[in-house]
């Protein structure tokens, strides 16, 4: 666990007298970066990233009806500014297919292919094992506490967005988390 060193500086950044909020933020970012890097090593043989893996999971959950690009973006764990590029990559790999609506050419429906489903099926156990290794230092009670604390922090953003736009965006479903 991060602590202050003898000079009063945070072990997270070395800055003197950082606030507890700054230390917690730094630790969250550092931890997320390391978790993501380790998981990306699992994805690398399939030419996937956390974002593209999440897209495949969202599309798998959508079934044969698929989703629009906007729907996919709303369900992603992290915001991605380059959805078109990510879908281009998944389409080149033959993991997804896109189809323009014959009624409204602006609408594009994205669906997962059989090949995309096979890749997801092959990744389920390695991803689960990676998560178990990553979080092995936490017992079930601590995992539930961590989840509760993170959801509490996320709720602040949901409330801010709701106040600004008048509508409440959905938090990512548990089933589409990486």
Strand element count: 3
Form type? globular
Q: What percent strand? A: 5-15%
Main beta-sheet annotation: 3 strands, antiparallel
Helix content: 55-70%
Query: What order do the helices and strands follow?
Result: HHEHHEEHH
Strand order of the largest sheet: 1-3-2
Q: Give me the CATH architecture of the domain at 21-134, please.
A: Orthogonal Bundle
Salient structural properties:
178 residues; mainly alpha; Arc Repressor Mutant, subunit A; three-stranded antiparallel β-sheet; 6 helices; 3 strands; globular; disordered C terminus
Descriptive notes:
The longest helix has 26 residues. With 178 residues, the chain is mainly alpha-helical. Strands 1-3-2 form a three-stranded antiparallel sheet. It has a domain of 114 residues: Orthogonal Bundle (Arc Repressor Mutant, subunit A), CATH 1.10.10.
Topology:
Layout: H1 20-43, H2 50-62, E1 67-68, H3 69-75, H4 83-92, E2 96-100, E3 108-112, H5 114-134, H6 140-165
Antiparallel strand pairs: 1-3, 2-3
Helix pairs in contact: 1-5
Summarize the structure.
By secondary structure, the protein is mainly alpha-helical.
């Amino acid at each position: 666990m991060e602590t202050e060193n003898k000079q009063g500086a945070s072990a997270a950044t070395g800055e003197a007298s950082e606030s507890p909020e700054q230390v917690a933020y730094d630790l969250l970012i550092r931890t997320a970066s390391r978790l993501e890097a380790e998981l990306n090593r699992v994805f690398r043989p399939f030419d996937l990233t956390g974002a593209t893996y999440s897209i495949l999971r969202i599309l798998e959950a959508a079934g044969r009806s698929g989703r629009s690009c906007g729907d996919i973006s709303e369900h992603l764990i992290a915001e991605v500014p380059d959805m078109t590029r990510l879908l281009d990559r998944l389409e080149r790999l033959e993991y997804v297919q896109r189809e323009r609506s014959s009624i409204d050419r602006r609408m594009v429906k994205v669906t997962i292919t059989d090949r995309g489903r096979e890749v997801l099926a092959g990744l389920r156990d390695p991803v689960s094992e990676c998560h178990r290794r990553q979080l092995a230092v936490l017992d079930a009670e601590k995992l539930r506490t961590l989840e509760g604390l993170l959801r509490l922090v996320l709720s602040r953003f949901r409330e801010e967005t709701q106040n600004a736009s008048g509508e409440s965006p959905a938090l990512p479903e548990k089933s589409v988390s990486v």
